Predict the structure.
Amino acid sequence: MDAAARKAKRMTDLPLYLMDEVVRLKDQAVARGVDVIDLGVGDPDFSTPPHILAATHAALENAANHHYSSYRGFATLRRAFADWYRDRFGVVLDPDTEVLPLIGSKEGIGHVHLAFVEPGDEVLLPDPGYPTYQGGTILAGGTPRYYPLRAETGWLPDLGELERHDLSRVKLMHINYPSNPTTASADLALFDAVAAFGLRHGIIICHDNAYSEVYFDGIRPPSFLQAKDATEIGIEFHSLSKTYLMTGWRIGVAVGHAGVIAALGDVKSNYETGIFPVVQQAGVAALTGDQSLLDTMRRHFQRRRDLFAGGLARLGYRVQIPTATFYVWGGIPGGEPSARFAKRLLDDAGVVVTPGAGFGPHGEGYFRAALTVDETRLAEAIERIRRITV
Ligand SMILES: *Cc1c(COP(=O)(O)O)cnc(C)c1O
């Protein structure tokens, strides 16, 4: 008998990771010689800014940075995150108890479940939503409880509807604004309501703020921690990946409720041994250095947004012009299933997008396009989409 075939049940509960499937189909098309325009994966084409690279080179030359470090991260890095939160959001954090650096925020989002979720416990997850909330829940033995997001309500959770059902088994709730994949933003009033909801029912709120700095038209997204009593009931994940164009570097942070942060730290201390010290130094340089590069990044993405979302709208697609994130969330005309639309787009036009249903059943009827190629290629993508649009 093949010993590797006797997998844990949680492995069979785990769905195929969405991006793996998108990448597989794309690789097949590239192997066939197709000139593929890849709007599938949310990884910007811009390189990490030079002053961050310079700090990295210097840190690399210092042999002290070649060793194990603590899962808690350098004090200088925790301080840099705390100062950044104060300057950006007006949120005051204790760097020793309310800030925990992560090996990318996905790492913390996955691991937080292990600290709180037992078999039989439930986790509230957005549908459609980022797949790691579900993966982390299942790997911890918990039960995902999807809450629907709908266009009619601005892709925001309906807390009143949730409260009409039994919430006694729910331990944790994930929210994510600005949202991947829907691009919707939330205001402080929503965060106030979610924090109060969490406090009423003893549900830990985990807010994923990966896109707080990728905003347009001067509308700056808030932090969940600005909400009333938020640090009594929740934490927020932030990441340097999208903010400083550092997706491959693997550095993020969890901030907020000291007890939740400590529990997440206890899990981490058993699984890993800190972010590469050189990357921690790079993170300090990013957080404390020149911030004007963020404006440049936003201007680029805003031009791409105008070009692509505007182009789709002219072709008759239902599309909301996003005020944040580098995605466009498009409605598929004619009731075509999203997986079929995405496959047709790849096969007939060589354009990769992610089918909305891959983010959950309520994503059906939509597709997500990542604005991670330059304007010439985006214009080409619109032209190709025009040709396959009936
Ligand atoms: C990109 C992304 C992340 C993860 O980023 P890391 O690189 O792991 O820090 C988390 N949440 C959402 C919604 C994302 O799109």
User: Anything to note?
Assistant: Residues 42, 104-106, 130, 176, 180, 208, 210, 239, 241-242, 247, 252 surround pyridoxal-5'-phosphate (CB under 6 Å). Residues 78 and 94 are 9 Å apart (CA to CA). Residues 292-314 form the longest helix (23 residues). The first strand starts at residue 37 and ends at 38.
